Input
Amino acid sequence: MEVALDADPTFRGRYAELALRELLSDTETMADRLADAVASDEPATLGRWAEQVAPRYRKRGVPLDDIVGIARGLQAATATVIQPAAMPAVDAAIEAAVAALRWHRRLGGDARKRNPVIAFIYKGA
Output
């Protein structure tokens, strides 16, 4: 998670300390699911996990773009601790999760910042 925090300087400002701890706990779970996906050589495992937790993040008001950033940070951090031969499996699993999160991002209820012009048009004002 530190990689994601370092990549986006506004990340710490958007979340309280408790919310950051919850995201760190979720990152540990994501790392466990990534290990399962790599061990079973089934990248869709992490994608299914992302499908299941997307509504949870929506309920907590966490933009899914932030979770994609955390997944990318986990991908970068994983590259330093595993053998290079296992990186294609890691990349495939992370891409499956990112694809699922981006699909859910387009649905209503995501906490990301909206384009004000498009929001004005959809309100019909």
In short: The mean pLDDT is 84. Helices lie at 2-7, 11-14, 17-40, 44-60, 64-78, 87-105, 116-123. The chain has seven helices and no strands.
